[in-house]
User: What shape does this take?
Amino acid sequence: MLQRKTRLSTDPTQPDATYAIDRWGMDLIRVLPDGDLGLRNPLKTNGPVVSLPTIIKDLDQSGVHAPVLLRVSSFLEHGIRSINENFNAAIERVGYRGEYRGVFPIKVNQQAQVIDRIVEFGRPYSFGLEAGSKPELVIALAHKLAPDSLIICNGVKDAEFIRLAILSRKLGFNTVIVLESPRELETVLEVVEELGEEPILGVRVKLTNQIGGNWAESSGDRSTFGMNTDQLVTVVDKLKASNMLHCLKLQHSHLGSQIPDVQDVRRAAGEACRYFVELTREGAPLSLLDLGGGLGVDYTGEKTATENSINYSVEEYCTNVVETVAYAMDEAGMTHPSLITESGRAVVATSSMLIFDVLEATLFDAQAAPVPEAEDHHLVQDLAAIAGYLGPDRLQECLNDATFYRNELRALFRRGYVDLRQMARSEQIYLHLMSQIKRLAPEPGTVPVIDSHLEQSADIYHCNFSLFQSLPDVWAIGQLHPIVPLQRLNEAPDRRAILSDITCDSDGKVDQFILSDGVSASLPVHSLKEDEPYYIGVFFVGAYQETLGDLHNLFGDTNVATIELREDGGFDLLHEQEGDTIAEVLSYVEYDPRDCIAAFRRIVDQAISDKALTAADRKALMAAYRDSINGYTYYE
Ligand SMILES: *Cc1c(COP(=O)(O)O)cnc(C)c1O
Assistant: This one.
């Protein structure tokens, strides 16, 4: 685990030293000399770094306002090339006598703009698609894949799903039906009988090796997918009895997701190979070994086997897989199968980022305090007197006293002995004390009590996004994403803040940040300036976040822009997708927006007949209602 710290010293000349961009940025994200965060095209050596604030301002001028999900086409292409070229290189290096034919699992990002590009960038590598459900198979079959690309069908399948998969072979698709259970085979046999067509079959085998990390439960005995050895034997026998064993071409074992430790990859791949060998000995003409997903993303950049990091590179992962399989097959004297992986996260995570603006800040300190007056309540005067003995040696005492007087005053207020104005004065005095204490406080980690006090006094930056819609894993599983202000990175951050979203939910906040020396409960930020937007970016959100997000408080999809970074330091807008309007999100919860307008109009008309409204009021009210219903769900 990264050490948890509440504050850290920051070097103003070295923004990277604060946010550790060098460490996790994969050389895709860099700081420009003018303090802007920039994006570098990974497909071009020495390509220019394009300023992200400039991109956002340009998009804003062309009507694509924040919050915006920015997809960078070359980052996606880089992801596709990386997995394919690393596997091909490993195959060459190891002398493996089989090929790599990876597939992209559609569930990781189903958006048309993403899948279309994955298919296009993957075509030279015969990269295919994995479908875990009927809708995903429908998506896969709407794409022209390279002739020898695979479509792998996982998940629970009914007759309709199986029928479509089998029939699609007539169009030249290499669609593989991966059996998840003996019962599924029964359905397959019925459909085969009905169609008189043969399927390409696979079996999903449950590995007993438990894999570490956040998704440990998708591996091992208690995994909800795949068959155990007994079920596997049942399926083999049934296939033999039905004279169909020759259709069994693929063995599938999903290793897990975001596997932190590369040793687990080797162990699991080794176990998968054992099943491959045994099934071949049973007479199945297996030629495809599918190792599923699991290749991780180093969100924190630490290169350690922890939940949000990984202790290996893509190159190492590929080499480990290829070596393990080559060794196992050679040992069993078997032909090297084609290797398939279903890496989703590692292929798409880096290609999207969420950009939002800060709407306002709630500060938990004050630059100045009111001068105590004779009429002030004596506790207010006592509170103010703390400033007189505040010093580095008496911080703890001052914190204790300030907390005591503030609590006493609050109790008196509740009972009616102190008025609102006295409370406001005491609050200001308290906050001013806190800012003085912040300045005098020792390095974090030295005095835990002071750390926890200061954690309570970080600013709240209210940001224009919904955690539930755009960063569901941050809420659900404490996923860490790199988060950085997009501008002023050549200025020392002078504030610490947590980020709160615009839902009315106290969970709608981010309070874990990746910094150079640990995970911090607050983010170093800059004081907001009047009339100057302050943008913050959340990186590596391309995997899982878009579809897992929900409509909490009815905040819908954000605007989406797909861009390409140009050689001259500019960018091209390849595609834009407007976020949901209020009318759209209302229809998701079964309101008809036209009915809403009609119902509102009836209420307005009633007020007119009651003579409570003028005709001009009516016009203004109807216009305001209509503008809202047609507008963006976020702060405009
Ligand atoms: C989710 C899933 C994947 C993708 O896993 P990543 O860790 O994102 O690469 C691959 N295969 C199957 C069967 C899955 O369920």
Observations:
- The CA atoms of residues 79 and 191 lie 38 Å apart.
- The chain has 22 helices and 24 strands.
- Residues 105, 107-108, 130, 132, 154, 254, 257-258, 292-295, 342-345, 543 surround pyridoxal-5'-phosphate (CB under 6 Å).
- The first strand starts at residue 4 and ends at 5.
